[in-house]
Amino acid sequence: MDSIDELDMFEAERRMALYNEYRDAARVFTYYIETELRAYLANDVAVEPVNGPGGVYFKVTLTDVWIYEAERLNRFVPEAVIWSVTDVHVQKLKAEE
Length: 97
Description:
There is one protein chain. The chain has one domain (3-92). The termini are far apart. The chain contains one helix and five strands. Strands 4-3-2-1-5 form a five-stranded antiparallel beta sheet. The chain is α+β, with helices and mostly antiparallel strands.
């Protein structure tokens, strides 16, 4: 195997580990939030449209957050504020019974 194949395998393993972590984490969160740049899980979300000189943008405040990003060392944070000029998708997750 050459180094390109090894790098591809390493990245595939990291993506699978991240997906497995996401699947487990999704069970304890209330909302799934998606922006153009990344996805989040959170237990509280507030989306505030803001009228600016260039148009409308969104201030999204998340509480008790898990960030879907492979390179991040600590994916769990107590609060995150996101500023977005594009769509913000918020979905309430179904509670497990």
